[in-house]
Amino acid sequence: MSQRTLPPCPSSPNCVSTQATDESHTITPFQYKKSRAEAKEALKAVLTTLPRTKLVEEDESYLHYEFISLLLRFVDDVEFLFDEPTKTVHFRSASRTGYSDLGVNRKRMEQVRALVEGKL
């Protein structure tokens, strides 16, 4: 099986990715110390505490969630990739529609970072 990659962010400012190279889209990945399976379960446990969040796809090193905004029911796609050799969780959070997200994707991922701190 080939190594999965995250799709690049579009030029619009409604996306952040740990694999982006430009300042407006880039964000720091998470590091994990546990086994990949344990780190993935810990991340899933944190994400289940967040409102309007649905797991749509999973394999041993990948998670894809949908986050639905409260008011307008916009869907954001959040993908996580666990890189075992570097113990890194890469992720991409992007709005499915629209242009600007007013920083929502970045804020959400920093919130997730705070929640998983010390748990992975």
- Structural category is alpha+beta
Domain module count: 1
Low-pLDDT sequence parts: none
Oligomeric form: single chain
Instruction: Give the termini separation.
Output: 25 Å
Order of helices and strands: EEHEEEEH
Q: Describe the biggest sheet?
A: 6 strands, antiparallel
The helical percent reads 10-25%
Write down the overall mean pLDDT: 94
Assign the CATH superfamily: Kinase associated domain 1, KA1
CATH class: Alpha Beta
CATH fold annotation: TATA-Binding Protein
Tally of separate helices: 2
CATH architecture annotation = 2-Layer Sandwich
Tertiary shape: globular
Strand content: 25-35%
Return Rg in Å. Answer: 14 Å
Number of strands: 6
How would you explain this protein's 3D organization?
- By secondary structure, the chain is of the alpha+beta class.
- It has a single domain, classed as 2-Layer Sandwich (TATA-Binding Protein).
- Helix content is 21%, strand content 30%.
- It contains two helices and six strands.
- Strands 1, 2, 3, 4, 5 and 6 form a six-stranded antiparallel beta sheet that branches.
- Strand 4 and strand 5 form a beta hairpin.
